[in-house]
From TrEMBL:
InterPro entries: O-antigen_ligase-rel_domated, WaaL-like
One Pfam family, short name: Wzy_C
Protein name, entry field: Lipid A core--O-antigen ligase
Lineage: Bacteria, Pseudomonadati, Pseudomonadota, Alphaproteobacteria, Hyphomicrobiales
Source organism: Mesorhizobium sanjuanii
GO MF terms, alphabetically ordered: ligase activity
Length: 439
């Protein structure tokens, strides 16, 4: 692939990532902004994937994506009704029959919602595979696009919090903006804390210690202002781990590390004041959502209810005393929701992904950017235990980009080449030259 094509690919995919962070913060279904992002991602991915490249993704990753797409497609294919006998409650069987023909049924309780999820998956997968096709330096070059998106969200959040404790912006996007450019303050907090390892990487390994410290302090203050309990705790933990995990192979001075930990101590005090143990899980809270969702999983473990149909199926298992004016739109636990919607096959695919992620950890220990991406992905997955961040296009595309960094083969090849070279001083410049074999 020519250098000019590589540059175009970088700007093309970088623009998709940046646009996703600007307008992809909604959580409702059927948003035109999400559709726009999906179309841009698919077109950009098709353009990049259609060109020849020296980079090839791991076969296991491709298989995972193919199986995930096949599972979603299976849910919208008419299947013999006899297959569902005994695998699904009779109440749900009434909603999944093919119109005009009772001999066939769909796995999905709402085919339209599942098709929306399929488009969402294809868009994220196309973006992920496209980044895997780039050279390592081009993958790194996407990081400024991510930083620009985070900065724009941070500026929006700072303006909101400086005006009032609760400023909702309506009419700008097809959803109400409540924090940064997101509809949900927890998802805004998630974007902030997943950017922390990259900010630390920027400060430690790019020679930008001052700007890295300023960025870290700003993100910490915004997390406190956002008031997300999970975001505050995860932000603290990911900052500590990023400094310890990434600084092991950097040249950061002792004074820099001391300054960071002093700041962390101050931040801990502010984080503790944000947490009220009595408000962590009230009677109508995440524990109740989880219990009800697990009840639904037990009765639909074989097939699931169809991706995108959580809200419709959840109401069937909801206790009478838990029905209020506000309704439950998500399980606030990504893994339980996926298991409820996709059944045992979805559980197996999640396990497959976690195995691949753990195996990849052994390969990325030498590259600081991959280590930063691994930390961000890990904490986003932890946050998914108590929320649904990956249901927003902004965080889904960010998640795809970070996974592409982790699973990119080029970083390992570059580390191997560096181990076979030696740094020499040439007219004041540091050059890497191959180590000659002695005869």
């Amino acid at each position: 692939m020519s250098d000019r094509s590589a540059e175009w690919d970088k700007y093309l995919l970088g623009s998709v990532l940046f646009i996703s962070l600007l307008i992809g913060g909604g959580t409702a279904s059927g948003l035109y902004t999400d559709t726009l992002i999906e179309v841009l991602a698919i077109i950009s991915g098709a353009a990049v994937l259609s060109r020849p490249s020296g980079q090839r993704p791991h076969h296991s990753v491709v298989w995972l994506l193919a199986l995930a797409a096949a599972l979603v497609i299976l849910q919208i294919v008419p299947l013999p009704a006899l297959m569902f006998k005994g695998l699904r409650p009779e109440l749900l069987l009434a909603d999944s029959s093919l119109v005009g023909e009772s001999r066939f049924r769909f796995v999905s309780l709402g085919v339209g919602r599942t098709i929306e999820c399929l488009l969402y998956l294809v868009a994220v997968a196309a973006f992920f595979l496209s980044v895997l096709r780039l050279r390592t330096e081009q993958v790194q070059a996407l990081l400024p696009f991510f930083f620009m998106g985070v900065i724009c969200n941070g500026l929006a959040g700072a303006i909101q919090y400086s005006l009032s404790d609760n400023v909702a912006i309506e009419g700008l996007l097809p959803f109400t903006i409540n924090a940064g450019l997101f509809a949900n303050r927890n998802h805004f907090a998630a974007l902030l804390f997943v950017s922390i390892p990259f900010v630390v990487y920027h400060g430690l390994f790019r020679g930008n210690l001052l700007s890295g410290l300023l960025g870290l302090a700003t993100i910490s203050l915004l997390l406190l202002a956002a008031g997300s309990r999970a975001g505050v705790l995860i932000g603290l933990a990911i900052t500590v781990l990023s400094v310890v995990f990434l600084s092991a192979r950097s040249k950061l001075s002792g004074f820099g590390i001391l300054a960071i930990f002093i700041g962390l101590s101050t931040y801990t005090i502010g984080a503790w004041s944000k947490i009220d143990a009595r408000a962590i899980d009230p009677d109508f809270g995440r524990a109740e959502f989880a219990r009800t969702t697990i009840d639904g999983i037990k009765e639909n473990w074989a097939t699931g209810v169809g991706f995108g149909n959580f809200q419709k199926a959840y109401q069937i298992y909801e206790k009478e005393g838990m029905i209020f004016k506000q309704f439950v739109n998500h399980a606030h636990n990504e893994y339980l929701e996926i298991a409820f919607e996709g059944g045992v096959l979805a559980i197996l695919l999640m396990a497959f992904y976690f195995v691949l992620l753990i195996v990849s950890f052994a390969r990325i220990r030498r590259d600081p950017l991959q280590k930063a991406a691994f930390l961000s992905v890990s904490f986003l997955l932890i946050h998914s235990l108590v929320d649904y961040p990956l249901r927003t296009a902004a965080l889904a595309m960010t998640f795809a980009y970070m996974n592409a960094i982790i699973f990119h083969k080029g970083f390992a090849d570059r580390s191997r080449q560096k181990s076979e070279m030696i740094e020499v001083d040439h007219n004041g410049d540091k050059l890497l030259v191959p180590i000659g074999n002695s005869s």
